[in-house]
Amino acid sequence: MFNASSPFHEPGFGAWKQELEALPPSEVLIREAEQTVRDGCWMRWMQADCESTYIHSVEDNVSKIGKHLVLLAEIADYPVGFCCVLAGRTDSDPLFIQLVAVVPSARRRGVGLSLLSAAAGWQPQRNIAMATLDDNVAARRLNERFAKSIGGNLQRVLVSRFRPSDLGFAPGEHHRPWMINRQ
Ligand SMILES: CC(C)(COP(=O)(O)OP(=O)(O)OC[C@H]1O[C@@H](n2cnc3c(N)ncnc32)[C@H](O)[C@@H]1OP(=O)(O)O)[C@@H](O)C(=O)NCCC(=O)NCCS
Predict the structure, then answer these.
(1) What domain range includes position 119?
(2) Residue 70 falls within a domain, yes or no?
(3) 5: in domain
């Protein structure tokens, strides 16, 4: 049995990490995650490699893939990032970007932006909501850049406007919500 919070010694993890250190300059491809052990495991390993993300079991990740839109980013067939997206319950609700994460060795080459663009294209009629910690400069700059790229207007909204669970954080965490208005 593997420790749910410690994937570092799971078979294949070390080899994947080594491949990440020598990623070719290939294009990033985005695809929808499938409800398979393999994609659940890729998510788990990326969660382990990214700071500010919780590490979930493969089963939990597979279940998440079944309930939400999960996008995977790949470079040369290796997964390097993912994005979890939740559609609002009503027609006027936004699309909630619950998490976007890219492994450190693939950052600053447009992977985060590609994931958000693909998420935005999933339901183009909806505005987009997300939450960030104030001190997460990378996430805040990424969101600004993303809003600009889709011609949207990024604005802070009240913490009470959306449920924390829709935005992908737990009560007691200090994320602050934003909305990109694209109407
Ligand atoms: C935030 C994160 C997803 C960005 O991913 P990324 O693939 O590096 O982002 P991109 O390469 O698409 O960056 C697009 C733009 O965002 C901004 N940006 C991204 N990272 C930045 C950083 N560390 N500092 C300043 N600006 C940054 C830049 O404007 C960048 O464009 P540029 O490289 O042409 O200047 C990544 O740093 C990450 O996974 N962090 C840990 C998890 C996390 O905090 N997720 C967000 C909370 S949900």
Answers:
(1) 25-181
(2) yes
(3) no
62, 39 Cβ separation under 8 angstroms: yes
Please choose from 141, 142, 145 the residue to mutate so as to test ligand 1's pocket, defined by most ligand atoms within 8 A of CB: 142
Task: Read off the CATH number of the domain in which 170 is found.
Answer: 3.40.630.30
From residue 171, give the alpha-carbon distance in Å to each of 106, 165, 175: 31, 8, 9
Model pTM score: 0.96
Residue 3, in any domain of the structure: no
The DSSP secondary-structure symbol of 7 reads: G
> Total domain count for the chain?
1
Taking the CA of residue 106 as reference, the ligand 1 atom at the shortest distance is 7
Ligand 1 proximity of 115 Cβ (cutoff 6 Å): no
Residues 89, 136 contacting (CB under 8 angstroms): no
Residue nearest to atom 4 of ligand 1 (CA): 112
How would you write the pLDDT of the chain (183 residues) with one tens digit per residue? Answer: 344 568 989 999 999 999 999 999 999 999 999 999 999 999 999 999 998 789 999 999 999 999 999 999 999 999 999 999 999 889 999 999 999 999 999 999 999 999 999 999 999 999 999 999 999 999 999 999 999 999 999 999 999 999 999 999 988 888 999 999 986
Does any domain span residue 94? yes
